[in-house]
Amino acid sequence: MTECPALSTLARKALDVLRRGGEFRYALETNSFTKREQFKARLRTASGRTVRGIGISTMYELKGQGLIAPANSTSVSTYYRLNPSPCSNHAGEINNCASQG
After folding, report:
1. Per-residue pLDDT tens for 6-44?
2. What integer pLDDT is reported at residue 3 of this predicted model?
3. How many C-beta neighbours within 10 Å does residue 34 have?
4. Threshold 0.70, pTM exceeds
5. Which of 34, 73, 80, 93 lies 20 to 30 angstroms, CA to CA, from 1?
6. Is the pLDDT of residue 63 over 90?
7. Three-state helix/strand/coil letters over 42-66
8. Which residues contact 95 (CB under 8 A, 6 or more apart)?
9. Are 11 and 74 in contact (CB under 8 A)?
């Protein structure tokens, strides 16, 4: 097994979820307590469940490494999935890291 020292444990877990059809959703949400709107990042599984504990910092880490790319966008939300580009610098890293448990 090869190690992926550049990625955090949460990023590796997120890659596993993304590899199985999940996606990051960066969207404008209303806080139920303050009624203020703010942007939130949520990792969702292929079945639509939210993965707790993985958010904006993990999304930015994967985005910075070029491992995720925007898949769909509206005026208030952007969805990110695994980068399908075969010329990505980290294509091998996706396969190596996502397979580690």
Report:
1. 889 999 999 999 999 999 999 999 999 999 999 999 999
2. 45
3. 8
4. yes
5. 80
6. yes
7. EEECCCCCECCCCCHHHHHHHHHCC
8. none
9. no
DSSP character for 34? T
What's the token pair of residue 68? 């995720």
Tell me the C-alpha to C-alpha distance, in Å, between residue 6 and each of 26, 43, 61: 23, 20, 10
Average pLDDT estimate for 58-77 = 93
- From the number of C-beta atoms within 10 Å of its C-beta (0-12, 13-18, 19+), residue 45 rates as middle
pLDDT score at 4 = 52
Contact 24, 39 (CB under 8 A): no
Token pair 């890291």: residue: 97
For the chain, give the longest Cα–Cα distance. Answer: 48
